[in-house]
Every structure is written in structure tokens, then in C-alpha cells.
């Protein structure tokens, strides 16, 4: 009770804003277990406001989920002596390992290019690439390829008009993550926009990580690689010996 | 049912993996090969990263070779002395192979190297086997088997050693070199290398056929174990979960294969294996030559 009261005081003490997001996540952590096959995250919330609903221009909601940032090398193949080999590379300084954008309206009605640039909402804006080697003239092609490949893998997704918005107050959407996502902290952002201008942003986090056996094996392989290697050999030796002993026993009756 | 592989970081169907391990096990039981040369490319096709496929393939071969060598020890068809000389070369070769592997990984060309090695070696071995078994069928129809004793240049080299089990008195250099080259291939391709070592032992070293398979299995255990350790400590690419499922399918398949193999004719078996090897080789080669649908590739740093 006291906590709630404190929270209410805190909310009241916030600088008066016309409209704000109160967010709920279906889960704040995603566990990668042995039978992990992707996951859906339900993101829902309400718009808290102290004034009457303004219906023109209408309120729009954009939800983004961004995986940990990491550097990536993009290789372009070229035919050399008849076979396709990796020929040119561009190093992208930081790209999210996962990125999903869901909007309540078609993209161009949701946010303007200027606001997109400022808040880094769309996929191309979320990728940071400082420079390509001097001999590569078309470095944009590499960034486009990065987006294309990850879209095919289900790691980057743009889902326009997939946020359900009711009475300009309640919204919900579902973001699906494929099985091949990486571990780390996933930043979830909710933008409220009117006429393409961002009027409020709310951020929260989802923790994605291996648990149980998966966690233990992964940690062992990185922190004690020799022990891990010996363990895998021991298992192999045991399985090989065990199988031949077992089948010999079966054959001899 | 999907299973998430902690090191490969992909989710795959566990029955597909068991089936793959089982199928390769059947083949290895039928033909007396390790099956690494089939398992690794098939893992590529399933979407397992090549580096993980190679390292885990080596781990799987440890299991199948131990299973095989025990039977040979019982029959006393393992030339331990020869095995140790081959092993000395093999360990040097494996270290060299992992070093080359890591060098090319840094250059972004490791995929190409692995695939090229596969196309070249599967092509050569598959082609030779195919021709040889066709000839054998042709000859068995005529009913004129031919025997020949090999005495090549290898017998003129220094550092001679006596190999009692094989009944040989030859220089230690050729077995070392054979071991070394197979070690390099083992590290790069994730194979035991039996399919190269066996012909080399028979035709190059002139070893009697009955001790060849046992001796090569003996050597393969240690070389692939060493390769597994090197990959595990330098690349972190050995996936225990993947290896376990493959081994499970493999050991069961091997027993089924052994039972099958005794019922089929040797020539038919060899032609079937050769066709399979050529098929895998052809698919890999096509991927290299045909314009890919996506000419860009992502490599995480």
C-alpha cells in the first residue's frame, strides 16, 4: 500500500506531460532452453493523459525491440576462376542482432524522416556504419544486404499496422523472436506520435539468455574450454565403448 | 521436436539429426568408413555453421572409431607400432590444420576452404571408387582376378623401422607423411581421413589389407580427439549437444549397417557408396559454381 502511494506521488510529481505511456510486457525475460524454438512477446500498454483525447491528428503508436548491438563484417562474393569466393568486405561498426518495429499506422503516417533520424526508429537508422574501405564505392549496398539477409532470417522485421490501438488509449502488439536470436539485453521502446512527431517515449528491457543445461554448457565452453573439450571426448569415448559393449552383449544373448 | 544447440546457437529437429547420425552410422557399418566425410557436408546443408560442423564432426568420429577399434583389437588386426608412427605425423598435421583453419577464418575464407577440400577429395575418392568397382564387376564376370605386390620408391628411404604386425621393414618417413597429411585434412574437413589413409596404407606403404582398417581407426581416434580439443580451446566450436545426438544415431545405425552389409555384394556396396559420395560432391560443387541467390554474407566478429 505504501509502495503504491509512493508510486502515485512519484507519477504526480513528474513534469506535467499531455500524454504518456504506461507499458506492460508479457514477459521481461526470455529463456533459451533445450527445446527453445523462438518466442512471442506481447507488448501492451495504455496512454495516460491529463487532457481530453485529441483526435485530429490521430495518435499513433510505434513499438521497437532492439537486440544487443554488435559489429558485423559483410562480405560480397565475386566469381574468381569460375568459383564464387568472398571478395570484398565492409565492417559495420554496430548493428542490432535483432530489430523489430511495429506500427499502428502505415509507416509514412507514423513518423517523419526527421523524427526517425533523431530517435533512430527505422532499421537503417538503427545500424551505425562509419566508413567503408576506400576502394569500395557502393558501401550502401553492403548495409542493404545486411538488412536483407537478416530480414530473411527473421531477425529484422518491420510490421506496419500491427499495433492494435483502441480509443487512442489502449494498445497491444506481439513481437515474435526466431530461435536464432542472440543473448543479451533487448531494449523495448514505445513511441507515441501525432502527425509524425514523437510526443512521448517509454523504454524498458527484456533479458534474453540461455538457462539450465544450455547456460552451463555455453559458459563451460567459453571459460574452461579445455575441460569442455575433455568432457566432450569423455562422452564420445563412453558412447563408443558403451555401444560396442551393449551390442556385443545383445548378440551373445 | 526441436532441440536448441548451445554452441551452434540454432534450433534443429532432433529426429532429423538422429536420422542423419543413424544414416551415416548405417553407411559406416556397411562400408567400414567413419562417415565424417558425409556428416560434415550434410550438417552444412542443415544450416549448422561450417566451423561448428567441422569441430563437432571430429568429436563424433572419436566415438565411432573407438566403437570400431575395439573389435579390431580383439582380432589382433591393429599394428600398434605403425599406428604410433602415423599418429606422430597426424598430431603435427592436426595442429597445422587448425592453424590454417584459424588463419583463413580471420580472412573470411574458411567456408570456401572447407567446401573446396570437400569437392576435391570427395570427387577424387568417389570417382576412383566408382571406376574401380565398375572394373571389379567387369572382371568378376570374366572371372579373372588379378593380384599384384607393390614395391615402390618408399622402400629406398632412410630411418627404416620394423613393423612386425604388418610384416614390413620400411622407412618411418612415408607413414609420418601419410599421418601428417591426413591430420591436416582431419582438422580442416572434420573427418577422420580413413577414406584417404586406407588406400595410402595399402598402395603407398604396402601394408596387408587385414591390418589396415584397425590401424587407421586406432590412429584416427587420437588425431580426431586432438583436433576436437584444439577446436574446443581455440574456436569454441565443439557442440556437445549436437555431437551427442549424432553419436546416439550413429552407434545404432552402425550396428544395423553391419548386419545389412553382410547380405549385399561387395561390388554393389562400393558402387552405392561411390554414387553417394559423388552426389554430395556434386551438390557442394554446384554451390561453388552457380551464381548464389545472395552474394552477400554476414560474419559476426
CATH top level assignment of the largest domain in chain A: Mainly Beta
Largest beta-sheet details of chain A: 6 strands, mixed
Quaternary status: heterodimer
The ordered string of helix (H) and strand (E) elements of chain B is: EEHHHHHEEHHHHHE
Write the layout of secondary structure elements.
The complex is a heterodimer of chains A (253) and B (301).
Chain A: H1 2-13, E1 19-25, E2 29-32, E3 39-49, E4 59-66, E5 69-80, E6 83-96, E7 99-103, H2 107-110, H3 113-119, H4 123-126, H5 139-152, E8 156-159, E9 164-166, E10 170-177, E11 184-194, E12 197-210, H6 212-223, H7 225-251
Parallel strand pairs in A: 2-12, 7-8
Antiparallel strand pairs in A: 1-3, 3-10, 4-7, 4-11, 5-6, 9-10, 11-12
Helix pairs in contact in A: 6-7
Chain B: E1 2-5, E2 10-13, H1 14-31, H2 36-45, H3 50-74, H4 80-107, H5 110-142, E3 160-163, E4 168-171, H6 173-189, H7 194-204, H8 209-234, H9 240-261, H10 266-289, E5 296-300
Antiparallel strand pairs in B: 1-2, 3-4
Helix pairs in contact in B: 1-9, 2-3, 3-8, 3-9, 4-6, 4-8, 5-10, 6-7, 6-8, 7-8
Tell me what the structure shows.
The complex is a heterodimer of chains A (253) and B (301). In chain A, 32% of the residues lie in helices and 40% in strands. Chain A is α+β, with helices and mostly antiparallel strands. Chain A folds into 2 domains: 17-209, Immunoglobulin-like (Sandwich); 211-253. In chain A, helix 6 (212-223) packs across helix 7 (225-251). Chain A is extended. In chain A, 28% of the residues are buried. With 301 residues, chain B is mainly alpha-helical. Chain B has one domain (2-289). In chain B, strands 1-2 form a two-stranded antiparallel ribbon. The model of chain B is unreliable at 144-149 (pLDDT under 50). At the A-B interface, strand 5, strand 6, helix 5, helix 6 and helix 7 of A face strand 1, helix 3, helix 5, helix 8 and helix 9 of B. Strand 5 (69-80) of chain A pairs antiparallel with strand 5 (296-300) of chain B, so a sheet runs across the interface. Chain B: InterPro entries: TM_pro_TauE-like (IPR002781), TSUP/Inactive_protease-like (IPR051598). Chain B: It is found in: Cell membrane; Membrane. Chain B: This is Probable membrane transporter protein. Chain B: Belongs to the 4-toluene sulfonate uptake permease (TSUP) (TC 2.A.102) family.
